[in-house]
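Hi W., the iron/sulfur cluster complex you wanted:
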Amino acid sequence: MSHIHDQELLMGTDSPLQDNILITQVDKLVNWTRRSSVWPMTFGLACCAIEMMATGASTYDIDRFGSGPFRATPRQADLMIVAGTVSHKMAPRVKRLFDQMPEPKFVIAMGACTVSGGPYIKHGYHVLKGVDRIIPVDVYVPGCPPRPEALLEGLFRIQEKMQRERLLDRTRVGVRPKLLVE
Ligand code: SF4
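Structure:
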């Protein structure tokens, strides 16, 4: 715990401030607050959404990890969980809602349909073969459907990415795929 050692050097071991001041980096503090209060956007498209709802319900209780408040507007959300089949008709709406979310924002592709087209990959002429064709995906959660434990694991991976963010590094923002619907 080097910061405690630093405090002792600065204030001496008898200082009343010794146990009340923490020294850290702005990046670490901001990232800690962000990863401790992830607000996903309500975004269920098909059967996978039922598992997403189960993740928020009492048995799995996503609130334990600071990620409970599903928002009904993209402007208050920093995580999009795309849960279900993305049809070509829905794809432009997915893209628009993603664009309306403020930075920094993250995406989980939940379920085989969202990851690659799933059971529709061969004959589903109406289904987008992977949501990463229109928005950048940070974490893929495979399965048909994935269980709530798998979605929670995906959330943990997102929180790890949030912890590595740099406030002044905007490279993620500059790398956005263009709208491409087959
Ligand atoms: S991956 Fe399976 S459970 Fe999920 S939306 Fe597609 S068909 Fe439904």
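Residues 46-48, 84-85, 111-113, 118-119, 144-145 surround iron/sulfur cluster (CB under 6 Å).

W.
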